TrEMBL record:
PANTHER family: ENDOGLIN, ENDOGLIN/TGF-BETA RECEPTOR TYPE III. Residues 17-266 form the ZP domain. It comes from the Eukaryota. Keywords: Disulfide bond, Signal. It comes from Perca flavescens (American yellow perch). This is ZP domain-containing protein. Signal peptide: none annotated. Coiled coil: none annotated.
Amino acid sequence: MCSSDDDLSGFLEPELVCGQDHLRLAVQKRLLEERGLNASSAHLIDPRCHQQVDQQEAMWYLVQRRQGICGNVVVTNGSHITYSNILFVYLSDWSNDSLSIPMSFPFSCVFPLNNITSLDTAIRYQLPVGLVRSGDPTRARITLYKRPDYSEPFPAGPVSLPLGTALHVGVSVENYDNNHFVLLLEHCYVTNSSSADDPATYDLIQNRCPVDPRHVKVAESGVSQRARFSALLFLYHGTFEDVYLHCRISLCDRDRGPCSPVSPTYLA
């Protein structure tokens, strides 16, 4: 804020906000009143410009940030541009018999002409894409075995087992990329329907680990292109309806691993 020929000693410096569209100058109304000044009488260099916003304690005066508006004086030096103007405020007790000399408040806003702008989105490299087609999902097979060594699979069709029996389950995929990938059990669960998308599930393995290690034991996962686990047969959903077993699997690249499931430690 620059000074003028008027006596501004002891006068609280007005607040100046240099915005992108407007210059805004705020003067405390109490200080104007103490000097006998009328806040509503103010105007800029061009007397026709007196845009004001009357707030509780201060009067805000606005001028557009444009050359040739309201007498704005614009100066550039190659690196910055400066917008300058003057606010004139008149005495409250002015009469028609005398010439009223206003108090002036010169003000200037300086803006840099140079700046750095950044794109907030990362640009990623992408190899050119030629002909692309989608292939079939990985061919996986799930088998229920009679013995704990995962031998003697049950024949196709419904299987009747007493409650508390251990289900010995094997999951395998066909030779995939010369065994470069290994099979991981991601999520194994039981439903009362044959649909793997049935929302009513009872989880046996979740996030590659047994949900309850007392009831589920993973014998192999993330080692080869087969996986094996055993689970106790209970009344999973509280009814004696038939149950169906489903497993969501993934193939893990040995070179990019790790491919071994990491289970939390359970306390006995």
